[in-house]
């Protein structure tokens, strides 16, 4: 995803919280990391995208309950499909986080580039 090595364990823990419990608890942990300055800006942005989505273990019951009401004779088939769907949804969130990591490095470069241009033009106008 592009998370700095120093933050890999923290982001992995957030993703584990998201998958096993839910994304809201993971976002609370992310806010705490941010509040304590325990995570880099890059890792924060990537984690924000990785935690998006309702793809966690607790949603398997929600999906099975709603789909099972529509087609009660196919609950067994849906049980196997739901696990694959949750996995695919997590992969989609992680791919979005990868794109965010790529774009963040581009934005980081552009910001430093424009800062240099602004500093240079300010020096030029002040002399």
From TrEMBL:
The keyword Translocase does not apply. Residues 1-101 form the Concentrative nucleoside transporter C-terminal domain. It comes from Armadillidium nasatum. It holds the Pfam family Nucleos_tra2_C. This is Sodium/nucleoside cotransporter 1. GO terms for cellular component: plasma membrane. The chain crosses the membrane at residues 45-69, 81-104. InterPro entries: C_nuclsd_transpt (IPR008276), CNT_C_dom (IPR011657). GO terms for molecular function: nucleoside:sodium symporter activity. Keywords: Membrane, Transmembrane, Transmembrane helix. Signal peptide: none annotated. The keyword Membrane applies. It comes from the Eukaryota.
């Amino acid at each position: 995803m592009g998370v700095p090595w120093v933050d890999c364990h923290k982001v992995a823990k957030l993703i584990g919280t998201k998958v096993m419990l839910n994304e809201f608890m993971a976002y609370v942990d992310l806010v705490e990391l941010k509040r304590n300055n325990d995570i880099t800006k890059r890792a924060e942005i990537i984690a924000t995208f990785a935690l998006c989505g309702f793809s966690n273990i607790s949603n398997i019951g929600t999906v099975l309950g709603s789909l099972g009401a529509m087609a009660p004779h196919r609950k067994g088939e849906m049980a196997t499909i739901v696990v694959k769907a949750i996995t695919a949804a997590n992969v989609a969130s992680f791919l979005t986080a990868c794109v965010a990591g790529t774009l963040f490095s581009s934005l980081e470069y552009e910001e430093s580039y424009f800062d240099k241009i602004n500093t240079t033009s300010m020096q030029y106008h002040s002399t």
